[in-house]
Design goal:
482 residues; alpha+beta; Immunoglobulin-like; five-stranded antiparallel beta sheet; 10 helices; binds zinc ion
Length: 482
């Protein structure tokens, strides 16, 4: 199952980072003092959050993760997860301690560079104090052993995320912060990393995660171990684990992207007719947005009612029941370019995910017998959103680039007014320049992170146009555009 060469994640994830935090003055002074007194102490504590405008405690300062190795054993009978996380990271400052995000579960032991480390926990922060301070630039390995019944979290908007147990299985979805319920890590999209995830489950169950299935091994004690590999960087909210008595279908797209789809019992064969078009959609996306960014594709179909939404987990979106329409399948696929390969720098940039994937649906529709994007745009402005069920009447209630609060980052304006921002650019620039912009954006930020300001600057450079009127009215304007 080896595929094309992919760029090394460590190099890629270095390139575009959120600006790090100012050093707390006291810690800086302390470090200075110890340096002057010639003490061997060189580190100071890493920050406990990255000050994301909506989720300030998400992620941690002072290091960047290159790779996670997660060895997980889960038994749906008792609902207990046993985990070992091996995290390879690079210190970006001298560190006397650093934090990982972890919610719930019992930590049994932590080592750093093979030596026992002290740790303590407050809220969702696991603070690790290595036996020896870490030097700036040092690549270090942290191992965390943990276990327990993982939590399900309620989002600020009331949706459920994290670890979702179901009858005879479980599903993990992590947007925006749910991944901290099942593994310790730097849980902010600005720190993407490669992953190797092994899921060990009782015989008869399948364990499904992101990327390529490297091996499937009978352990000899009545269990099966599934080893999954993601070489390209993954934002931790897009990491998934699914355990169930799935029907698995494998294959490849016409151009040879390997497919792996797992369908929960009771759901239609292959996940139904909408999902059956996935191989064709992957090719369509590649033709519109540039090469498919990952080494595999597919889907995970959970029992219906598992969640109130679908999530674009990398390479393998999770659907709550067989997806009812093509648009939903296309939407989660489009995220592989917009959101997963080009990831937001902060949760304020959510429209770069949702506006783009919604517009991708509109493009698919206009090429497959549906209304044109222009007709949709006009209908929305005239107050008729009936073509897009989810849009409702308040699709322009707030500017997509500035949701009023964290409970609003997945609301209509981020999706629909976000899509209309793209349509406004298309109106100004014309099809040729517009499609070159979409492809260029995906290519130039492939496997990286980008902000709204990065996009507006890029769009003006790429089209050679002053688009400030579009940004002012549609992207940032407080007033409804109608
Ligand atoms: Zn979406």
């Amino acid at each position: 199952m080896e595929t094309r060469a992919v760029p090394r994640p460590a190099e890629l994830s270095r390139s575009s980072r959120v600006t790090r935090l100012a050093v707390p003055a006291v810690a800086a002074l302390l470090a200075l003092t110890t340096a002057c007194t010639g003490s061997t102490v060189q580190g100071r504590p890493g920050a406990s959050g990255l000050r994301d405008p909506y989720f300030p405690k998400a992620g941690n300062g002072g290091y960047q993760v290159d790779h996670y190795r997660l060895d997980l054993a889960y038994d749906p009978e008792d609902g207990v997860l046993h985990g070992k996380a091996v995290i390879t990271a690079r210190a970006e400052q001298g560190l006397s301690s650093f934090n990982l995000d972890l919610s719930g579960l019992k930590v049994e032991g932590v080592t750093v560079q093979g030596a026992g480390a002290r740790f303590n926990r407050t809220g969702n922060e696991l603070t690790v104090r290595p036996a020896e301070d870490l030097r700036t630039g040092e690549v270090f390995r942290t191992e965390v052993e943990y276990s327990g019944e993982p939590r399900t979290l309620s989002d600020p908007d009331g949706s459920e995320e994290g670890w979702i147990p179901v009858e005879d299985g479980a599903f993990a979805v992590g947007e925006p912060v749910g991944s901290m319920t099942w593994f310790p890590g730097n849980h902010h999209p600005s720190d993407k990393a490669a992953y190797d995830i092994t899921l060990t489950v009782p015989k008869g169950y399948e364990g499904v995660s992101n990327g390529l299935l490297r091996s499937r091994t009978e352990t000899g004690d009545g269990r099966t171990a599934f080893a999954w590999h993601s070489a390209e960087p993954v934002a931790s909210y897009l990491v998934t684990a699914a355990v169930g008595k799935f029907k698995v279908a494998t294959g490849q797209t016409p151009s040879g992207v390997p497919l792996y789809t797992a369908v929960a019992p009771g759901e239609p064969e292959g996940g139904g007719p909408a999902l059956a078009r996935l191989p064709e959609m992957v090719e369509w996306g590649a033709a519109r947005f540039g090469p498919y960014p990952f080494a595999s594709a597919g889907a995970i179909v959970a029992p219906s009612e598992t969640l109130g939404y679908a999530l674009e987990t990398q390479t393998r979106p999770v659907f709550s029941g067989a997806p009812a329409d093509e648009q939903l399948v296309l939407h989660e696929l489009a995220h592989q370019w917009f959101g997963n390969s080009v990831s937001p720098k902060s949760w304020k940039d959510m429209w770069l995910n949702e506006g783009f994937s919604t517009y991708a649906e509109w493009l698919w529709d206009e090429e497959h017998g549906g209304p044109s994007a222009q007709r949709r745009f006009d209908a929305f402005l005239a107050g008729d959103t009936s073509v897009d069920e989810g849009a409702g009447t308040d699709w322009d209630a707030f500017p997509p680039a500035a949701p009023p609060g964290p409970e609003e980052i997945s609301e209509g304006p981020v999706y629909y007014r976000g899509a209309m921002v793209l349509h406004r650019i298309r109106q100004e620039a014309g099809d040729e320049r517009f499609f070159a912009l979409l492809r260029g954006w995906a290519a130039d930020h492939r496997h990286g992170n980008a902000s709204t300001a990065d996009f507006t600057a890029y769009a003006e450079r790429k089209t050679g146009m002053d688009l400030s009127k579009v940004w002012d009215a549609w992207l940032y304007g407080r007033k409804p555009v109608r």
